[in-house]
């Protein structure tokens, strides 16, 4: 892509650039204020703590680009941790557990996609039903937190991959980065990815252009379900437990990350890199609050809400002024 | 014309919608290398026939033979793959994608699943070059005008090796030059043996380009004729199936009975929309605006109604300066506006005829002062009768009405406010000949009754027939204001547009 | 009856029958201590907050918008009322304060949507996220308990032998019907939701209408918040009204109002809210473990939505339904 080398930045990249600029500004402001904030490991820790959210948000980006929404992701994440914990405790080999969990996630996503596409149920409602279903399945499996003691999972939780200079990341970060890279490739270099954009731009037109809209819509919800399950596995690595109350409200974080990243909820416009920045910003807010130390947890919500407001207003101002 | 076997043969096509027979035993034969016009009023079944042909709707009965083999398409994609490509009336492309993607997506060059961007851009540029277009194929489609988007849609349709090209009213958003360019392309394709099914409301265009035509009326086929053997008057008679005398009567221009000045715009303008213009509208006067698409005709109307903000100039009404900042303010000065795009800017399709008609009156009263139901019923009833709105059911949803009747509903909405200035932007576009005549007669009557009308139309004859005075626009500028005396003809108007007002 | 309301009504009837099967006296209403008692009364009483929130949500959705923030407004209003009462403010003043703040928050939502032009789902997401934090800030993360007898009446008291909450919901329902159907607010809302630009060009002040509607939705949520807090005599910033926005949206959709805006049905919304509340009651009364509540909810929601979906009916009962096609259109397809 040669767009960034042009003398004038095309308008479609502006929201992402604003997000990037504000991320840098936040990081610098944090560094100026708190001792030990201004380090690469702080950024890496944001990745480590939010790898699962990043993966979930990638799936959400696909869905939102088609003009849909997926409210079920948080519940599917919880279900994934629950199923993984139960199966591991039942003595299943870790690899089989991982495959089963991913299949369940993708299957749930496909099911919701079918409701949306074939029965024309609005995505908001279909995925809301999916949200209730997945959370309900969690509670049906069990209402208590189930610890995970499988050696492969604990190894994944504790391994530190050194990057030299005392810096390290977890295996989950590698997985998340790989997911982002694959997703970016799919969105920009394949027919499926471009059809995702086309569907979000104008679904009726895309259909009349002879593009496989049906397959694409089923595809994005399947991807989102798959990503949620994968995010659930990463969360299981991170928490080493399966619990029906894991990831409550995660769908909001994922949607917030996508929106802060400059993707329009109406579909057809936005970039994956924006989503990555959105996740990083959410993570950075939590880091700031933990550095501050004296702030209660609800300030996180207030800050995220305020930031959401600021970003949306800024994007609004920029896009209207450029018109 | 060779008497070759038809490339496309539809026999006995029937299509029912709930409560309506859209197509009844329709036949259509299209020969290779001909331009075949599909003619009919709105609601005659042209679009339904095209949708059945291209796999958007399944047919209830009948057969489709393509090259002698029976086919049945489940989707537009299947039709495309079989060699039937369609360009729809509204541009059906994705505005957020690049021009190249819009032309090639679905058939883009790939290697191991990866899109080959460079060859793709080159191929898209070649396709456009064949249409004499030179665009930045990496730019998003939304950057370009509707006319260019239409040409991109045609480029996409030609990208497949189309044996049948269906053009559903492709010219309604093109200006004269662009239409010529399109016709050039069509003749070119014809020479290559492509059959073109062409739908247009513009009779002149049909006579210029089409070899044969099939006429539909009320979902039935009226017949097919070589273009040269059917005169325009006969064609119209077959399309509307009624006596043409009432159309002819309108040829007499209404007498100008104008009195005092109603509205005066002085150097009114909007940056990027229309350059400052001055215009005087008197009571009882019909002021026509003539100009090509994009010449600024709609912008003039929108400024006078407060739909857009003026960036300079002033307006006086009855000699008093006013600031027309919003539609509400314009409405308090008794200005009414029927926009060009009825469906996007005019009507609320999911509301009933009654609700659409009382909407502006209710908006003026505010939601705290509802219009009593009996009064609503009376008003709506009166205008359903006066304007012959059909079906005459006030509780019918507007989306179920034909284009002409929708236009009448919109007119009724404004007429109950008893405006002093009625702005009509292309009120007769895309509606059938009968309704067109009715609307023209209505304009004449209203002006006789003292109402001022600003009448915008792409059809110069219509402007000339109705107006007392014609403003000519070109390139977002009002270049001339001509009194409609006996010397003003369509030729004079065209020359004025062509010369840019300098004679 | 409106065809759209048929399926939710059927589902509600089935749920009630199911209850009758498991609890024979389910439908009986008796008078005890001068009050009406019975399962049906309980459904109405516990469903009152959801009915309130859903009424406001109906109008927002009819404009083509959505309000995700109502749950947070429920929490804020309950927290404010309890905080004020616990600090010695009179009940009426405390309730007035809570409801007034809710109104301001709603107007803020409306401002973002109507004046700034932000997508409703994003605009109200701001208050949904931040509002939950604000509610916890007001209660300082604690649960504020109040013992004021006057306050208790709103959610737990009786008037004319009926729970006060039911009457309050009825009053708000009547007010909503009056505003929208007797006055012309309904027509203007359906017009804005049906086609915003056409409404502007017909002279509608859509800004004013949108702000009114979002303020009204928050007002309903504010009243519901006070009702919820009064019922349990305490304010919980974290859990009060949690996910009620989703239930409210569901109630509206089950009631036959489309999320795309335009036509709305208040009767349908009340029916939808009662379906959801009856479902919860049913799960307890037929002895299904409460952990599976959500599972049942998912199934019923899916069932109702599928039954309402023309596409589903066409596939499931191809004989009995008329062929499903797009409405008849003339040559010009509705452009998106």
From TrEMBL, chain A:
Transmembrane segments: 12-30, 42-65, 71-88, 95-119, 168-187, 218-239, 272-292, 298-318
Pfam families assigned to the protein according to its UniProt record, in alphabetical order: BPD_transp_2 (PF02653)
UniProt KW keywords: Cell membrane, Membrane, Transmembrane, Transmembrane helix
Keyword Cell membrane: yes
Compartment list: Cell membrane
NCBIfam families from the UniProt entry: PRK11618.1
Topology versus the membrane: Multi-pass membrane protein
Name listed for the protein in its UniProt record: Sugar ABC transporter permease YjfF
Entry keyword DNA-binding: no
Superkingdom per UniProt: Bacteria
Cellular component GO terms held in the UniProt record: plasma membrane
Gene: yjfF
Automatic annotation (TrEMBL), chain B:
Assigned keywords, A-Z: ATP-binding, Cell membrane, Membrane, Nucleotide-binding, Repeat, Translocase, Transport
CDD domains: ABC_Carb_Monos_I (cd03216), ABC_Carb_Monos_II (cd03215)
Keyword Nucleotidyltransferase: no
Pfam families associated with the record: ABC_tran (PF00005)
Topology in membrane: Peripheral membrane protein
InterPro entries noted in UniProt: AAA+_ATPase (IPR003593), ABC_carbohydrate_import_ATPase (IPR050107), ABC_transporter-like_ATP-bd (IPR003439), ABC_transporter-like_CS (IPR017871), P-loop_NTPase (IPR027417)
N-terminal signal peptide: none
Any GO molecular function: ATP binding
KW Transit peptide (keyword) present: no
Highest taxon of source: Bacteria
SUPFAM superfamilies: P-loop containing nucleoside triphosphate hydrolases (SSF52540)
GO cellular component terms, A-Z: plasma membrane
Domain ABC transporter: from-to ranges: 8-243, 256-500
Location in the cell: Cell membrane
Principal location class: membrane
Cross-referenced PANTHER family: CARBOHYDRATE TRANSPORT ATP-BINDING PROTEIN MG119-RELATED, GALACTOFURANOSE TRANSPORTER ATP-BINDING PROTEIN YTFR
Name of the featured protein: Sugar ABC transporter ATP-binding protein
Source taxonomy: Bacteria, Bacillati, Actinomycetota, Actinomycetes, Propionibacteriales
From TrEMBL, chain C:
CDD domains tied to this protein: TM_PBP1_transp_AraH_like
Topology with respect to the bilayer: Multi-pass membrane protein
Subcellular localization: Cell membrane
Keyword field contains Transmembrane: yes
InterPro entries xrefs: ABC_transp_permease
Gene Ontology cellular component annotations, sorted alphabetically: plasma membrane
Primary residence: membrane
GO molecular function, one term: transmembrane transporter activity
Transmembrane segments: 43-61, 68-86, 92-114, 121-138, 158-179, 209-228, 240-259, 266-288, 294-312
Keywords, sorted A to Z: Cell membrane, Membrane, Transmembrane, Transmembrane helix
Designated name of the protein: ABC transporter permease
UniProt organism field: Kribbella albertanoniae
């Amino acid at each position: 892509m040669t767009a960034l080398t042009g003398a004038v930045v095309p308008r479609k990249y502006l929201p992402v650039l604003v997000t990037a600029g504000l991320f840098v500004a936040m990081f610098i402001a944090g560094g100026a204020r708190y001792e030990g904030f201004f380090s690469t490991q702080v950024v890496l820790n944001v990745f480590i703590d939010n790898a699962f959210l990043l993966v979930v948000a990638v799936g959400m980006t696909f869905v939102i680009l088609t003009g849909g929404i997926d409210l079920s992701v948080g519940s599917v994440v919880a279900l994934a941790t629950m199923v993984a914990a139960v199966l591991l405790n039942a003595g299943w080999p870790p690899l089989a557990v991982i495959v089963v969990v991913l299949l369940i996630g993708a299957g749930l996503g496909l099911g919701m996609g079918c409701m949306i596409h074939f029965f024309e149920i609005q995505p908001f409602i279909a995925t809301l039903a999916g949200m209730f279903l997945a959370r309900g399945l969690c509670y049906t499996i069990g209402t208590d937190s189930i610890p995970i003691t499988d050696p492969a999972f604990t190894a994944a939780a504790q391994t530190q991959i050194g990057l030299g200079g005392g810096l390290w990341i977890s295996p989950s970060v590698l997985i998340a980065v790989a997911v982002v890279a694959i997703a970016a490739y799919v969105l920009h270099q394949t027919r499926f990815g471009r059809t995702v954009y086309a569907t979000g731009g104008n679904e009726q037109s895309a259909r009349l252009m002879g593009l496989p809209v049906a397959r694409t819509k089923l595809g994005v919800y399947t991807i989102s379900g798959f990503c949620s399950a994968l995010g659930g596995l990463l969360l299981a690595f991170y928490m080493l437990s399966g619990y029906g109350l894991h990831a409550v409200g995660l769908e909001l974080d994922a949607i917030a990350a996508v929106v802060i990243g400059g993707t329009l909820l109406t579909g057809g416009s936005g970039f994956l890199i924006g989503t990555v920045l959105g996740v990083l910003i959410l993570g950075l807010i939590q880091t700031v609050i933990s550095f501050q130390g004296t702030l209660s947890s609800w300030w996180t919500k207030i800050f995220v809400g305020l930031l959401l407001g600021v970003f949306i207003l800024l994007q609004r101002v920029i896009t209207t002024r450029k018109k | 014309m060779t008497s070759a076997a038809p490339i496309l043969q539809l026999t006995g096509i029937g299509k029912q919608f709930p409560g309506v027979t859209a197509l009844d035993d329709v036949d259509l034969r299209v020969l290779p290398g001909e331009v075949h016009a599909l003619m009919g009023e709105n609601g005659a079944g042209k679009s339904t026939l095209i949708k059945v042909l291209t796999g958007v709707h399944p047919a209830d009965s009948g057969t489709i033979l393509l090259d002698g083999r029976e086919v049945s398409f489940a989707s537009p994609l299947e039709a495309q793959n079989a060699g039937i490509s369609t360009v729809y009336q509204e541009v059906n492309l994705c505005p957020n994608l690049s021009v190249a993607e819009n032309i090639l997506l679905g058939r883009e060059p790939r290697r191991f699943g990866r899109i080959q961007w460079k060859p793709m851009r080159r191929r898209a540029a070649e396709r456009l070059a064949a249409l004499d277009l030179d665009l930045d194929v990496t730019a998003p489609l939304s950057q370009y005008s509707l006319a260019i988007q239409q040409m991109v849609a045609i480029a996409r349709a030609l990208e497949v090796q189309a044996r049948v090209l269906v053009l559903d009213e492709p010219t309604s958003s093109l200006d004269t030059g662009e239409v010529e360019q399109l016709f050039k392309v069509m003749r070119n394709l014809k020479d290559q043996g492509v059959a073109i099914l062409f739908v247009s409301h513009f009779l002149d265009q049909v006579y210029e380009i089409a070899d044969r035509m099939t006429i539909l009326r009320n979902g039935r086929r009226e017949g097919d004729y070589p273009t040269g053997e059917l005169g325009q008057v006969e064609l119209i008679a077959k399309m509307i199936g009624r006596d043409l005398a009432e159309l002819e009567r309108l040829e007499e221009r209404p007498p100008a009975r104008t009195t005092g000045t109603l509205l005066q715009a002085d150097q009114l303008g909007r940056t990027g929309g229309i350059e400052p213009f001055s215009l005087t509208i008197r009571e009882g006067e019909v002021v026509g605006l003539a100009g090509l698409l994009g010449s600024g005709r709609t912008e003039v109307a929108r400024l006078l109604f407060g739909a857009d903000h003026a960036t300079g100039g002033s307006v006086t009404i009855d000699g008093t300066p006013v600031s027309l900042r919003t539609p509400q303010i314009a409405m308090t000065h008794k200005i009414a506006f029927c926009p060009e795009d009825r469906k996007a800017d005019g009507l609320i399709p999911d509301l009933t005829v009654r609700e659409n008609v009382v909407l502006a009156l209710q908006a003026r009263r505010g939601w705290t002062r509802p219009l009593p139901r009996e009064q609503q019923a009376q008003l709506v009833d009166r205008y359903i009768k006066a304007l012959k709105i059909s079906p005459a059911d006030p509780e019918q949803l507007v989306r179920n009405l034909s284009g002409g009747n929708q236009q009448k509903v919109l007119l009724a909405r404004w007429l109950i406010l008893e405006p002093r200035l009625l702005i009509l932007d292309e009120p007769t576009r895309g509606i059938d000949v009968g309704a067109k005549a009715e609307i023209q007669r209505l304009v004449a009557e209203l002006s006789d009754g003292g109402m001022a009308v600003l009448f915008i139309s792409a059809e110069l004859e219509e402007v000339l027939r109705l107006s007392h005075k014609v403003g000519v626009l070109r390139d977002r500028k009002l270049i001339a204001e001509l009194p409609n005396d006996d010397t003003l003809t369509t030729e004079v108007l065209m020359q004025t547009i062509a010369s840019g007002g300098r004679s | 009856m409106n065809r759209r309301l048929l399926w939710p009504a059927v589902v509600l009837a089935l749920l009630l029958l199911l209850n009758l099967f498991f609890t024979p006296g389910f439908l009986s209403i008796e008078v005890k201590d001068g009050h009406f008692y019975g399962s049906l009364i309980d459904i109405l009483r516990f469903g009152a907050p959801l009915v309130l929130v859903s009424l406001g949500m109906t109008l927002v959705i009819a404009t083509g918008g959505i309000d995700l923030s109502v749950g947070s407004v429920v929490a804020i209003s309950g927290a404010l009322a309890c905080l004020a009462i616990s600090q010695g403010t009179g009940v009426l003043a405390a309730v007035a304060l809570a409801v007034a703040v809710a109104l301001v928050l709603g107007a803020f939502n409306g401002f973002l949507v109507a004046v700034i032009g932000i997508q409703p789902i994003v605009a109200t997401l701001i208050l949904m996220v931040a509002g939950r934090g604000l509610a916890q800030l007001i209660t300082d993360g604690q649960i504020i308990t109040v013992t004021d007898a006057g306050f208790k009446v709103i959610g737990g008291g009786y008037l004319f032998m009926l729970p006060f909450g039911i009457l309050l919901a009825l009053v708000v329902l009547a007010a909503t019907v009056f505003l929208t159907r007797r006055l012309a607010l309904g027509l203007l809302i359906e017009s804005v939701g049906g086609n915003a630009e056409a409404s502007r060009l017909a002279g509608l002040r859509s800004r004013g209408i949108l702000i009114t509607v979002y303020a009204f939705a928050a007002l309903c949520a504010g009243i519901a918040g006070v009702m919820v807090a009064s019922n349990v005599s305490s304010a919980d910033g974290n859990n009060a009204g949690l996910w009620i926005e989703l239930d409210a949206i569901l109630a509206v959709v089950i009631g036959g109002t489309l999320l795309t805006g335009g036509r709305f049905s208040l009767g349908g919304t009340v029916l939808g809210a009662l379906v959801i509340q009856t479902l919860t009651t049913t799960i307890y009364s037929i002895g299904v473990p409460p952990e599976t509540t959500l599972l049942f909810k998912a199934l019923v929601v899916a069932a109702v939505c599928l039954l309402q979906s023309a596409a589903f009916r066409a596939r499931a009962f191809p004989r009995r339904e008329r062929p499903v096609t797009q409405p008849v259109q003339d040559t010009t397809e509705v452009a998106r």
